[in-house]
User: Fold ATP-dependent DNA helicase RecG from Holzapfeliella floricola DSM 23037 = JCM 16512.
Amino acid sequence: MMKKKLLTPLKEIKNVGPKTLDKFKQLNLSTVYDVLYSYPRKYDDYNAYELSAIENGQKATFVGRVITQPIVRKAGFKRTILSFKLKIDHEIIMVSFFNQPWMKSKIEQGEVIAVYGTYQKPAQRLNAIQLVPQNYLNRLMPSYSLRKVFSLESYQKFIVSLLKDRELIIDDAIPLYLRQRYQLLNDNQLIRFMHFPKTKQQQQLARRSAAFREFFLFQMQLQEIIYQESYQEVGIVRQYHRIPVDSFIKALPFELSNAQKRVVNEVLADMAQPKVMHRLLQGDVGSGKTIVAAISAFGAITAGYQVALMAPTEILAQQHFAKLQELLSPFGVSIALLTGSLTIKQKQAIYHDLATGKTNFVVGTHALIQKNVEFKRLGLVIVDEQHRFGVNQRQKLIDKGDAVDLLSMTATPIPRTLAMTAYGNLDISTIDELPRGRQTIVSQWVSPKQATIIYQRMLQQLKEKFQIYVVSPLIEDSEQLNLENVEALYQKMLQHFPDYSVGLLHGKMSADQKQQVMMAFEQHKIDILVSTTVIEVGVDVKNANMMVIFNADYFGLSQLHQLRGRVGRGQTQAYCLFVSEPKSETGKKRMAIIEHTTDGFVLAEEDLKLRGQGDLFGHKQSGVPQFQVGDILKDYQILVEAKNSAQEVLTHDPLLTRTPENQNLKQLLNYLKSKTKD
Assistant:
């Protein structure tokens, strides 16, 4: 029934002509379902409360008698204030409409009116937003993102007409036993209470049910993917040879941490299973993910397969290549570096060796996904800083082999909320401890006015033969401004430290220039490296013992933590100074948190709270679902319950065919999937 009614195209609904249909298209609404489940973005409370019950700064509706003539006065260029006094019971407040002089004709002294606005309690002043019509009074009025396509009245009238249609059958997305368990509304009640709540209690009850519903539907889609990957995607058993792998681990110049040992076992066990591996390896900065990747790669090579490691930048790819070549070449591994800056002749030689199987491990950038790159027997793909690659880019590399195992790595710890949403279809391995002997970095938030202290600390490090990173923020909207910042900082360092070598590194330099600068820094030909965030990930210079980050409040917590992780790579005590004078409370809070917290997992959670779910990595995070009602932070417990419920449903009925309820649910999931593709 649902496919005939809820999923009925709007063009088949009575009284929806071409013009109205075009309006719905502008709002991206194409079916009855789309309209009924597009909820209000907020509710304006037009219930009139007693004045004593209103909090300072609260938006509320006030009903009272106008006791003075409304007066319009100028308040600057093209600005006006319309003011009058309103008597509410025995209290008198001042009401002001800003830049709405035409409202004067609608207000008369002596009449009783209802006004909606923000109340400033200490001043007994109402910053008015609108007059409340009589038919809105003592109601919660929904507010939609209609973009002036429809009026509120016409849009609500259409919803009412749909709900009055006796032929409309609204099937429930959530099975009855789950609704009873979690005390949820059925879909019919939910729709009515979301669009036309009579009380705040109704609206809150509907919101909770709506949040559960959208979390549940999302988790159902996610769990279906997991089911398909686990049981329908046939993998290849890649049984590594234990003796050479054990010999490789014993030959390492250090002992693996317990967390590294655990994660290595998880990865190798996955590769030996007859299903494709989809594993995310997360570890704090400096936790030793590269060693885990090296062991995993060596395991795949001993099983007779090739390995590809893709990194987001040439600097990082070169760093990985140097380290992995040093570790693996003594064990007979032929490893190559493939980047965009190689000559055609160099690339062709690598293409040949990969196609013939002569090279069994290649490290590279996006150059790996080019059509010319072919493998004889690709078995494992490792993607470093995986959030910097699109899904399609990763897939292009995976498609160069048969049933290829995937190990994604990130040094940005994933908050538990995002682990259940954006990364819910991946098995997650976590390195939650630092290698033995590694000391905690001493961090301090300092003001730009404390320049003397900053330079003294830097000089002390330089006298002790250590190197220093000086970081200027990347201002995304203006690369030119960014270059001016880093250039100015570079000149300042030259001026303050004339006896030391100062280098400059930024994103506008060519790959060769960047490599030359980094090589000079690694060889200690440069004492102070002034850089933008191109050194954010992967760069590993053990003698770099201090970082000074200027304008640190331009960065998010996770990005600051990534930058800080470039120092303290050796056994000595390292330092990081965050130079900042933030104006906002959020900026001050961010600086206080980064100064006192070195745990990347704690910082990731805090960053998510401060910046919201869509901007964890310093740019719009792909793959993070945007929910209409549910908030993955505030509604975390509902998210957990919805995930458990989705797993329960699919455990009992993996194909969603056993009951009419599940069959309807399957139809709905297919529809939502088609909407996502569009």
